[in-house]
Amino acid sequence: MILTVTLNAAIDLTYRVPHLQPHRTHRVTEVDARPGGKGLNVARVLAALGHRTTATGFAGGTTGGELRALLAEAGGVTDALVETAGATRRTVAVVDEATGDTTQLNEPGPHLTPAEWETFLGTYGELLADTEAVALCGSLPPGVPVDAYARLVRAARAAGVPVLLDTSGEPLRRGLAARPDLAKPNADELAGLTGSTEPLRAARQARRRGAHAVAASLGAEGMLLVTAEGAWQAAPPVALSGNPTGAGDSAVAGLLSGLVEGVSWPARLVRAVALSAATVRARSAGEFDRATYEDLRHRVTAEALRGPVGAG
Amino acid sequence: MILTVTLNAAIDLTYRVPHLQPHRTHRVTEVDARPGGKGLNVARVLAALGHRTTATGFAGGTTGGELRALLAEAGGVTDALVETAGATRRTVAVVDEATGDTTQLNEPGPHLTPAEWETFLGTYGELLADTEAVALCGSLPPGVPVDAYARLVRAARAAGVPVLLDTSGEPLRRGLAARPDLAKPNADELAGLTGSTEPLRAARQARRRGAHAVAASLGAEGMLLVTAEGAWQAAPPVALSGNPTGAGDSAVAGLLSGLVEGVSWPARLVRAVALSAATVRARSAGEFDRATYEDLRHRVTAEALRGPVGAG
Which residues of chain B have a pLDDT value below 50? Predict the structure, then answer.
């Protein structure tokens, strides 16, 4: 199975309001609640693609119970979340129907204890025995050591399990040094890491920091992939309008499913770009539009980039 | 005991953010969750005043479980909520720490079935047998008939239980016709009901529509009370700054506790105004500051208003 790790899982609430105005009272016209946190989004997309998928991370309190109920309701993903004393956080996306804009409110999440982190490490180690590939996704909750992802990357590699890392800041910097098979930062995260705003240059620098391969999401310009075998870029044939929430997580699912199925690097990139675009076009945030995906995965092409591989 | 009815109960979330800006992502720095809905606020204040208090209404889903857990945690209030299939709603108050302003997002709540409403009527009837006074508070959830409060007022009066009504709009208009012992609209609600923006005139008109007595909250100007025995007004000695959330609910608790203890109408008014002001001064929304209350209940005075009682 494919394993996804979400250390800072959440219940993602989407509120639709006619028009958001600070200092006013708003009647929410539509409420949507779904399992949240990047790794859980990745798991849902992998399950929709037909992969046997398990999600681990933390859940606690009544909100943790709600998260698990939502995950079970959605189906397809095995729940291997570790129970915590602190309550699972919520995120609220307020969609302004007049402007189409989204305002995001993210709870910080519970403070995890050292004992809870140790319990998680045990669970993670056991799960790796049956895992074909693992994705480590999202921010770290309070209480988890900043080198958490480095430790999880090393454990996966020691178990011979390919590992993808999708995080930012210091956890990304430390995680890269542990040599993940693939890192998937966006252009901003790459720039923050390397100081370079030129994505190809920055992706190559990120490889030198430890990642065997780097897939950088470039928004409307698609995605850039730099590996030991070469570098490619792919983008949707036309700019797609919609809600980009979860598009990066769908890209991770595309990359991981391609890895498990043993398809080539450029084919993985095409799959990631098609899924990402199909997510932007979906009605609900974090879902993907299957018709768009089926269309785009035959139309998106990966263009090989010139220049010596590994050059800065 | 004192019974409070909250047909549209909620989990009230308060999010503190450094500065709310539409179309941005915000990290919530502080999360507070408490039992919400006006009747549950009233129940908490009554319990804090030492009254044996029971709360009824509806709760359902995992959010209903969370509501009940929060109510049990707060202590002092007996949970007589009726289980529903639909999930209890949330409300989110976003406090902008830069401006002090609050932006409110209110979920609509679940649609109740006729069977759930009938079950509630049975529970309510049983609870009335042991009730000294009852408060009917807040808006009606979808699915409950618009004359719901009229029916609950009549049942209380038939059981010989004094009944206070605190709602607005059509449910208030219909509820008044069933002759509650006391109605507590605010100035806006009174104006909406009677067409008069002059509070004393409007309160007298509301009495003619059926309420035996009317207590109208006037914001910083305190509160106006019109009864068969006379009319009074009371206000805090100085204008108090703070968060007015729950101030009206604390006033209801003050009026109801005074009724049960058999104190005079002006003494009930003083208690309501002191509790209301102590709520504005509290650190958390919906709590009251006990020192402020103890100070004000000896310093607030009720001024008798001239003019023939009942004159329009």
Answer: 308-312
